[in-house]
Amino acid sequence: MRSYVFPGDIDPKIMEIGSRPFLYMRTDEFSAINKESEQILLDLIHCKGGRTIIYTGSGTGAMSGVVENYVSTKKKALVIDGGSFGHRWFQLCQYYGVPVYDYVVPFAKDIDYEDLEKVMERERPYVFLCQHHETSTGVLFNLEKISAICKKVGASLVVDVISTFLADPLDMDKYGIDICITSTQKGLNIPPGLSVLFFSRNLEGYQFNHRGYYWDFDDNLSNLKRGQTPFSPATILFLQLNARLRQLREQGGEDANISRIRHSAEVFRSLCAKYGWEVPAEVKSNAITGFQTKDTAERKIFRGLIDKYDTYIMPGGKPGFYRVSHMGLQTDKELEELAERIHEFEPR
């Protein structure tokens, strides 16, 4: 099987951990592993003196936790709604009764930052929610510009970096981000099942709400001080996370990983040009390439790759629009082969 969906093909050494006997979670040994993981994670995202919560749960669970515990303490939120994942912030705010302004960005377009600044000055939100990269379209938003606007109006900045952490340059302290969210199945390139929240040291002592039992921030933060979780964790995934973080550190950290992913993105985008596939994202993330083919709503390319080649790519929300992840292990030759096979099933 070849996988160009998240998390992509995973290092066999990491996968092999899943077949080993594993530590009992309520031990000093498991606590030490989690404390080490927290420190490496904070180093990789440049969050000095910050804290993490590592949840057994998806990225949406972590987003829900942010709204339950943090956004619900604010009088008003503004959401960048640039696709299905940005819209999820809006839905969560509505679900929990948080007053929210939905700032809609057209498909694959960058934000009009001058207009956004005007809206921010008019609406005066207390918290700003966005994706660094809208994974449904492939567009990368400019955190430097967003950060400057948030600072100007005094809004707390919360960013979903699920598909940019370790794929695009990211410095939490530099951009004054209060909370970031990521998950294991993207740049960390291990199986799905864990999500990570990063908290700026500026939130130390913050009075969070308690509107969700499982996702409660104070309970989780208190437990992680001793390297533990309040409820049973996905133990094997915690071990795979630690092994992967150590591996990343040994391989040169985030810069080396970003460079590898950027190269794969550049190679595949050159192949898109060769076959005449438009890459509509105005500003492109390294994480994925979203490209428009001549395929129809029947998704002949998607099914053809699976049925004939046991190969997976990600369909998008529009007919013929597909996404290829650059997170996993992939060579230039494999990308060339993938493009040839996509073209094979494209309607003529």
Strand content: 15-25%
Q: Can you count the helices? A: 11
* CATH homologous superfamily identity of the largest domain: Type I PLP-dependent aspartate aminotransferase-like (Major domain)
Please trace the helix and strand order, writing H or E for each element: EHHEHEHEHEEEHEEEHHHEHEEEH
- pLDDT < 50 runs, ≥5 residues: none
- Form type: globular
CATH class of the largest domain: Alpha Beta
Structural key phrases:
alpha/beta, Aspartate Aminotransferase, domain 2, Aspartate Aminotransferase, domain 1, 2 domains, 7-stranded mixed beta sheet, 3-stranded antiparallel beta sheet, 14 strands
Tell me what you see in this structure.
- The chain is of the alpha/beta class.
- It folds into 2 domains: 11-250, Type I PLP-dependent aspartate aminotransferase-like (Major domain) (Aspartate Aminotransferase, domain 2, 3-Layer(aba) Sandwich), CATH 3.40.640; 254-345, Alpha-Beta Complex (Aspartate Aminotransferase, domain 1).
- It contains 11 helices and 14 strands.
- It has helices at residues 12-16, 28-45, 59-69, 84-95, 113-123, 143-153, 217-224, 235-250, 253-275, 300-309, 332-345, and strands at residues 2-3, 51-56, 77-81, 100-104, 127-131, 133-134, 139-140, 156-160, 179-183, 194-199, 288-292, 311-312, 314-315, 321-325.
- The strands form 4 sheets. A 7-stranded mixed beta sheet has the order 2-10-9-8-5-3-4, sandwiched between helices. A 3-stranded antiparallel beta sheet has the order 11-14-13, covered by helices on one side.
- Strand 6 and strand 7 form a beta hairpin.
- Helix 2 crosses helix 8 (235-250), helix 5 runs parallel beside helix 6 and helix 9 packs parallel to helix 11.
- The longest helix is centred in the last third of the chain and has 23 residues, at 253-275.
- It is globular.
- The two termini are 27 Å apart.
- The relative contact order is 0.18.
- The model has no long low-confidence stretch (mean pLDDT 97).
